[in-house]
Amino acid sequence: MNESAGHPISFGNHWLKTVLVSALVSLSIHLVCINVPRNPSEVICTYHLPSTAKRLLSCTTTSPVPQLPARRGNVFVVEDPIRLHHWQLDEDGDLSTDKRNKGETVPHSITYVPEKKKWTDSEARAALQAAARSRKHGDHKKAQVIIEHAMNLAPEHPDVLTEYGIFVETVRHDVVLAENMYRRALGYNPRRAKTLPLVEEIDNKMLQEIHRKHKYFLQIPRKNPALRRAMQESYFQYVYHTVALEGNTMSLVETRSVLETKMVVNGKSVIEHNEILGMDAALRYLNRSLVHVGKLTLNDILSIHRRVLGFVDPIAAGQLRTTQVFVGSFTPTGPENVASDMFQMLEWLNDEETLQIDPVELAALAHYKLVYIHPFVDGNGRTARLLMNLILMQAGFPPVIIPVEERLTYYKCLQEANQGDLRPFIRFIAKLTDNTLQSYINSASTCEAVECSRSISTPTIVT
């Protein structure tokens, strides 16, 4: 009787121990997941865990990437003029003609530790407030001493540069030096809103006109036949002009023939053919994938470049450079700093304050920042122009074409930006954006009168 009565007690103790051990294991896993700062399941899944624990963590061979909402409400999608062909991208996003890229690791593990500042933001703000108070109270001598001390303390702080610019403009009446200070502040922090009043007024009027046209453009039905034809033609125009800027000698007709028929053009090099195919692949990737993504990552930039250069140089495609390059008289950042500079750029690009910048300005600044870093051995300009248009498309703008006829102006504005003045380049991109919108509006106005009157009323466009 005693033995038979002892069996259920022993079984109950064993069951209770099993429950307690399972609860402790689950609690431990939960605590570890909480304390892992980023992608905890990816980190834990690399360890040898029991199958039960892996099921709890939902460990899989490939972790799904969450799709973030687009940055802006209206997203522009390029009208695809031709269907997908065998040389195009497969479902995994790799180039079907370049299997060497498959399984390629992307440097997600690269970390960037910023250098310690010689000054703190609180010190800079305190000096700025003291200088501003002295200037406003008319104690210009004291204001000069304080602001010059702040300049010595933090010569690259955008607020210090701006306050010094205000001081020399209003007290010394040295507009040239003030302009230089504003320009430097804009270079160190492009989100700065302060510039010379006259310049700011001119730029604001230009941007207001662009957004007026943009608002009208968004009202045009996407089924408008004339607009669809213009979008399709713009696709060929974009591919032609962006490769022509890099020296490709294919004409627009030849470029269109390569994309539509996949036939070889006599007298043209294999590289020129592959440049066209690569640009087509990259533009499709933007149109089908990245335009709907919120925050951009280094992998996104590398994926764009992998398509741009994939048919020309599969080994260098999608890889950050490891050697020093030179662009005329300009020397980009050293190879040892490329990764950290790219992370800094992307951190800036995804910052909430940065996203408050006008999308036209932001697109131009992102373009310049990428070519300034020059992260790749080749294909930097094409990748930068795609990044610029990705930002515009996410904001509902059509892609902007930089005509090959504007090549000298384009590079001159970039050179001026390298010297510290980014505004000519921003104005150049703004002008092209305005021209692009006007072109689409003019094209849409050729539709049948009945259809146009049914959709929207045609405003008077000031050119």
Automatic annotation (TrEMBL):
<feature type="glycosylation site" description="N-linked (GlcNAc...) asparagine">
    <location>
        <position position="287"/>
    </location>
</feature>
<dbReference type="InterPro" id="IPR003812">
    <property type="entry name" value="Fido"/>
</dbReference>
<feature type="domain" description="Fido">
    <location>
        <begin position="296"/>
        <end position="431"/>
    </location>
</feature>
<keyword id="KW-1133">Transmembrane helix</keyword>
<dbReference type="GO" id="GO:0070733">
    <property type="term" value="F:AMPylase activity"/>
</dbReference>
<keyword id="KW-0812">Transmembrane</keyword>
<keyword id="KW-0548">Nucleotidyltransferase</keyword>
<feature type="binding site">
    <location>
        <position position="418"/>
    </location>
    <ligand>
        <name>ATP</name>
    </ligand>
</feature>
<dbReference type="GO" id="GO:0016020">
    <property type="term" value="C:membrane"/>
</dbReference>
<dbReference type="Pfam" id="PF02661">
    <property type="entry name" value="Fic"/>
</dbReference>
<keyword id="KW-0677">Repeat</keyword>
<comment type="similarity">
    <text>Belongs to the fic family.</text>
</comment>
<feature type="signal peptide">
    <location>
        <begin position="1"/>
        <end position="34"/>
    </location>
</feature>
<dbReference type="InterPro" id="IPR040198">
    <property type="entry name" value="Fido_containing"/>
</dbReference>
<dbReference type="InterPro" id="IPR011990">
    <property type="entry name" value="TPR-like_helical_dom_sf"/>
</dbReference>
<feature type="site" description="Important for autoinhibition of adenylyltransferase activity">
    <location>
        <position position="246"/>
    </location>
</feature>
<feature type="active site">
    <location>
        <position position="374"/>
    </location>
</feature>
<feature type="binding site">
    <location>
        <begin position="410"/>
        <end position="411"/>
    </location>
    <ligand>
        <name>ATP</name>
    </ligand>
</feature>
<protein>
    <recommendedName>
        <fullName>protein adenylyltransferase</fullName>
        <ecNumber>2.7.7.108</ecNumber>
    </recommendedName>
</protein>
<keyword id="KW-0808">Transferase</keyword>
<keyword id="KW-0547">Nucleotide-binding</keyword>
<keyword id="KW-0802">TPR repeat</keyword>
<keyword id="KW-0732">Signal</keyword>
<keyword id="KW-0067">ATP-binding</keyword>
<dbReference type="InterPro" id="IPR036597">
    <property type="entry name" value="Fido-like_dom_sf"/>
</dbReference>
<keyword id="KW-0472">Membrane</keyword>
<dbReference type="GO" id="GO:0005524">
    <property type="term" value="F:ATP binding"/>
</dbReference>
<feature type="binding site">
    <location>
        <begin position="378"/>
        <end position="385"/>
    </location>
    <ligand>
        <name>ATP</name>
    </ligand>
</feature>
